[in-house]
Design a protein that fits this description.
- The complex is a heterodimer of chains A (about 250) and B (about 450).
- By secondary structure, chain A is an alpha/beta fold.
- Chain A is about 40% helix and about 25% strand.
- Chain A has nine helices and ten strands.
- Chain A starts with a strand and ends with a helix.
- Chain B has three domains: about 35-65; about 70-100 and about 245-455, MetI-like fold (Orthogonal Bundle); about 155-240, no CATH class.
- A two-stranded antiparallel ribbon of chain B has the order 1-2.
- In chain B, a hairpin with a 2-residue loop joins strand 1 (about 175) and strand 2.
- The longest helix of chain B has about 35 residues, at about 420-455.
- The two termini of chain B are about 35 Å apart.
- The chains are: A alpha/beta (about 250), B mainly alpha (about 450).
- The interface of A and B includes residues 79, 95 and 96 of A.
Chain lengths: ~250, ~450
């Protein structure tokens, strides 16, 4: 079988008004691949991965996710979103629902899963992220790291084929960053296709198959992490790395 | 830090235990001193408040209880007293509660009151079981039950839809069974079939599932048929037109209908106003601004006296019903704006979280956005409910006599004219309104606290 792509982005362009945020983005992500996207703030990293599940629209180009082309058809968009999990910087958990209800809501209402089965699956994933004892608490009662792990479990409950992470550790205090990163490493070891926007270069080194560097709405450099960190080719990449790796 | 010498390093050898707060912060007296007498301004305000209480409360207690007349059969008992004339209320209580409803039929409103209470109370108690069934019974069945019992049912329906354009009366099927005109039901059957055919053809054209559309339409038509059957069937009850209803009965009918109907309507309008579809948004804005721009009195006047001129001849629906519709639409517009405030308070991240899981628009609204938005605006919603409850009294101007209307009618009874009748009547009305409004307010407070416990 030929190489199968989980996500294909072909010459994607996006404008906010007159501001050209994404310029000719070309990115092909293999099934099972782990991509880390880094770059200075405002470079379009988040916007790019939000185009993959259509949280952002784009004006030119094509995005194909799991062989489904994202067009304006709403049904298609929901179909794609079902199979693409997303973890946000600010968790975006539902504060009026318990941790367990956060995890079972979408399987029950989107996948029409029976409640019992959804709860069993949710407990399985809460076990995986090591917080089963918090299942009946509300998100507001948990620490930031715990909330982010719930958010990961919530996304996993939909059995996604691709997971997107939008700066998952940026809003956490330093003591809890590790527990979230460990959870993500566990996911990577399971063979999940992951696209991660992050500034955690340690994570990139350890887990990524490829590192994507973006600036000014364009992909500047893509390489394996070893090469990327040891021999950055583009000058902009070198400058960026010299700023963040002291 | 200040206890360490500058530059010296410090390592704590043992952690300090928790200690109780200083004694002068605990107990009632420090609290009083702190709150009521902490400075000259507070002392002055405290004394002024005390003076107002002393000036107002004793005369009130004297009027309502000490000097009040408790027994009697006519004005003679009260004419020389300076206190409340409670026998007046006692004598007129039937009129205050039921209006001109025939006294020998009081059991019918009573049955409606009791059934309403039995359905509302478990709905309001969060721990009570069978919420869904309870809600269906209260919202779907109870209105028709109440209407049939109060009005008597047997509405004598003659034409549904097709019958308005084609004369069906000439057919041999003009019989009548148990108050049901067969011509009407033939009309209903024909119209229903025609609607179904149109819906199936339309869904085939736009490519929707004809089966699902037909199923939904059949369900809707079935519910309409049941409702019409209930109001058309002859249960052998003596008809009591809405003209004879009055007093607290009308107040509650108008207020509860307005409250129950305006909330869902308001939610739809609020969602419509925030919709991304321009036509929906525009229609919602026009609707809301129209009803907010017109005084309720005008609405009621228009509905009662002007509407008949615009309706086709022969279409004439009940005066109370028209007032009900006016009140409902009016308060729905206000409700919509209250709820829109709540919708705006929901962060964008909630929508994105829902979208990322593949939830559709209605699922996102029903499961994620509205539960949070409505909790935020509970104070505003209840504010509207209370205002609506008290505004119902405006139906007086279209000759519907609610509690206050009956009260004023009772004042003109010469048999009870005394210097204190007026004050007694208004005191009574005030107490009744207060019980209902304070009840709503306290219940809302309880709901708010409960929601707060849940999520924070």
């Amino acid at each position: 079988m030929a190489a199968e792509f989980a996500v294909e982005m072909h010459k994607v362009n996006k404008w906010f008004g007159h501001f050209h945020v994404l310029k000719d983005i070309d990115l092909m992500v293999l099934r099972g691949e782990r991509i880390v996207v880094c770059g200075p703030s405002g470079s379009g990293k988040s916007t790019m991965i939000r185009c993959i599940n259509r949280l952002e629209t784009f004006q030119k180009g094509r995005v194909i996710v799991n062989r489904i082309e994202l067009a304006d058809d709403l049904k298609r968009i929901d179909e794609v979103r079902r199979d693409v999990g997303m973890v946000f910087q600010h968790f975006n958990l539902f504060p009026h629902l318990t941790v367990l209800e956060n995890c079972t809501l979408a399987p029950i209402w989107v996948r029409n899963m029976p409640k019992r089965a959804a709860e069993e699956a949710a407990m399985h994933f809460l076990n995986r992220v090591r917080i089963p004892e918090q299942a009946n608490k509300y998100p507001g009662q948990l620490s930031g790291g715990q909330q982010q792990r719930v958010a990961i479990a919530r996304a996993l409950c939909m059995n996604p084929k691709v997971m997107l992470f939008d700066e998952p550790t940026s809003a956490l205090d330093p003591e809890t960053v590790k527990e979230v990163l460990d959870t993500m490493i566990m996911l990577a070891n399971d063979g999940m296709t992951m696209i991660v926007v992050t500034h955690e270069m340690g994570f990139a080194r350890q887990v990524a198959n490829r590192v994507v560097f973006m600036d000014a709405g364009q992909i500047i450099e893509v390489n394996e992490p070893k090469e990327f960190f040891a021999h950055p080719r583009h000058e902009r990449t070198r400058l960026f790395l010299s700023q963040i790796l002291k | 830090m200040s206890t360490q010498a500058a530059g010296a390093s410090f390592v704590r050898s043992e952690l300090l235990p928790d200690r109780p707060p200083p004694a002068n912060l605990v107990g009632i007296f420090p609290l009083l001193r702190e709150r009521l007498f902490s400075n000259w301004l507070n002392i002055a305000l405290t004394l002024m408040s005390l003076a107002i209480i002393v000036l107002v409360v004793p005369p009130l207690v004297r009027f309502l209880f000490i000097d009040a007349v408790w027994t009697g059969t006519s004005r003679d008992a009260c004419v020389s007293s300076s206190g409340a004339c409670w026998p007046f209320i006692q004598a007129k209580i039937g009129q205050f509660i039921y209006g001109f409803y025939p006294a020998e039929l009081y059991w019918r409103p009573n049955l409606v009151f009791i059934a309403g209470a039995l359905l509302v109370l478990p709905l309001l108690i969060p721990a009570a079981p069978l919420k869904k069934l309870n809600a269906i019974l209260f919202l779907g069945v109870y209105p028709f039950f109440a209407f049939v019992i109060l009005n008597g049912g047997n509405l004598d329906l003659r034409r549904f839809l097709i019958g308005r354009f084609v004369r069906l009366d000439g057919l041999p099927l003009v019989g009548e069974v148990a108050g049901l005109k067969l011509v009407f039901w033939l009309d209903f059957l024909l119209s229903g079939t025609a609607l179904l055919a149109v819906a199936i053809i339309a869904s085939a054209i736009i490519g929707a599932s004809a089966r699902a559309v037909a199923k939904t339409l059949l369900l809707v038509l079935g519910c309409i048929a049941l409702a019409l059957l209930a109001v058309d069937f002859d249960f052998g009850l003596q008809p009591v037109g809405t003209r004879s209803w009055g007093g607290l009965l009308v107040t509650l009918v108008v207020a509860i209908t307005g409250i129950v109907a305006s909330l869902p309507l308001g939610i739809l309008l609020a969602l419509g106003r925030r919709s991304e579809m321009p036509i929906v948004r525009f229609a919602s804005v026009v609707f809301i601004e129209f009803w907010r721009g017109v005084p309720l009195v005008t609405v009621l006047f228009f509905a009662t006296y002007m509407l008949p001129f615009f309706l086709p001849a022969g279409v004439n629906f009940d005066g109370l019903l028209r007032a009900l519709i006016g009140v409902t639409l009016f308060s729905a517009a206000y409700m919509a704006e209250v709820i829109r405030g709540g919708l705006q308070a929901i962060p964008k991240g909630q929508y994105e979280g829902a979208a990322s899981l593949g939830l559709g628009y209605w699922q996102t609204m029903n499961r994620i956005v509205l539960p949070q938005a409505l909790v935020i605006v509970i104070p505003g919603i209840v504010n509207s409910f209370i205002a609506l409850f008290k505004d119902t009294t405006l139906v007086l101007i279209v000759s519907i006599f609610d509690l206050l209307g009956q009260l004023r009618a009772a004042f003109s009874d010469p048999n009870w004219s005394s210097p204190t009748t007026l004050f007694t009547g208004f005191a009574f009305a005030g107490i009744v309104y207060f019980i209902f409004c304070a009840g709503m307010s306290r219940y809302a407070l309880y709901l708010e606290r409960r929601a707060a416990h849940g999520s924070r």
